[in-house]
Amino acid sequence: MKRFLAILLSLVPLWGCNHNEINEALLDRNDISITWKGVPQVIYNGSNCQLAYNDSDIEYRVYNDRLAYWFFLRCEEKPVTTGQEVRAYISWTGEKSTKAYDNLLFRVEKTDESGMVWLWNTDNRIGVIIKNII
Question: What pTM was computed for the model?
Answer without folding.
Answer: 0.82
